[in-house]
């Protein structure tokens, strides 16, 4: 059996495109995970992506995780509520002064509580100022991401409310998740 999956690619081409969400509750903090940790990143990836069928990193070894996380211009930003990880956003610098928001999402228990808009706003701002933290990077000229029909029901609306614009749509048949 297969399912039809639509993938949308969205972008911002100026820091002025960002429309921040209202601030999160006082109990929510966003912190950069500055020490690359394959175990922590695997936890975030699996916890956020399990119910929306994230599978592309499931087979990575610890060494492959570390290699990915240690690349210049890769950052993981984690939202915590009262000390508990609530979600994360992973940035990756790419050629041409572009930054991809590679992964973004919340653990299921934290969805629908306005944390996602705040995390996306904060993470997008960090994409725009990424070169300030990485001396060999060119200042960001474009921030992009993709989302798909398997993601949560509020994902696309959140991206659009933050000022992202659609630039590509693809529809493919994929094997139905087991």
List strands and helices in order, with pairings.
Blueprint: E1 2-12, E2 28-32, H1 38-49, H2 62-69, E3 74-81, E4 84-94, E5 98-106, H3 115-128, E6 142-148, H4 155-161, E7 165-175
Parallel strand pairs: 5-6
Antiparallel strand pairs: 1-6, 1-7, 2-3, 3-4, 4-5
Write a concise keyword list for the protein shown above.
178 residues, alpha+beta, 7-stranded mixed β-sheet, 7 strands
Number of helices: 4
The percentage helix is: 10-25%
Estimate the mean pLDDT confidence: 94
Mind describing the biggest β-sheet?
7 strands, mixed
Write the H/E string, N to C: EEHHEEEHEHE
Return residue spans where pLDDT drops below 50 for at least 5 consecutive residues.
Answer: none
User: What oligomeric state do the depicted chains represent?
Assistant: single chain
What is the strand arrangement across the widest sheet? 2-3-4-5-6-1-7
Please, could you describe this protein's structure?
This protein is an alpha+beta fold and 178 residues long. 23% of the residues lie in helices and 35% in strands. It has four helices and seven strands, in the order E-E-H-H-E-E-E-H-E-H-E. It has helices spanning 38-49, 62-69, 115-128, 155-161; strands spanning 2-12, 28-32, 74-81, 84-94, 98-106, 142-148, 165-175. Strand 5 (98-106), helix 3 (115-128) and strand 6 (142-148) form a beta-alpha-beta unit. Helix 1 packs across helix 2. The chain is globular. The model has no long low-confidence stretch (mean pLDDT 94).
Outline of the structure:
This protein is of the alpha+beta class. The protein has helices at residues 38-49, 62-69, 115-128, 155-161, and strands at 2-12, 28-32, 74-81, 84-94, 98-106, 142-148, 165-175. The chain has four helices and seven strands; from the N terminus they run ββααβββαβαβ.
């Amino acid at each position: 059996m297969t399912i039809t999956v639509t993938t949308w690619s969205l972008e911002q081409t100026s820091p002025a495109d960002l429309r921040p969400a209202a601030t999160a509750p006082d109990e929510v903090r966003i912190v950069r995970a500055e020490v690359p940790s394959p175990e922590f990143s695997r936890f975030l990836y699996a916890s956020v992506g399990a119910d929306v069928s994230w599978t592309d990193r499931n087979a990575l070894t610890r060494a492959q995780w570390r290699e990915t996380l240690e690349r210049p211009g890769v950052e993981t930003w984690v939202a915590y509520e009262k000390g508990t990880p609530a979600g994360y956003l992973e940035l990756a610098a790419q050629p041409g002064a572009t930054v991809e928001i590679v992964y973004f999402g919340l653990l299921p228990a934290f969805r629908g509580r306005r944390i996602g808009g705040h995390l996306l706003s904060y993470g997008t701002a960090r994409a725009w100022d990424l070169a300030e933290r990485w001396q060999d990077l060119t200042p960001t000229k474009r921030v992009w991401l993709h989302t798909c029909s398997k993601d949560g029901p509020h994902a696309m609306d959140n991206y659009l409310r933050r000022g992202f614009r659609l630039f590509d749509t693809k529809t493919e048949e994929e094997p139905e998740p087991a």
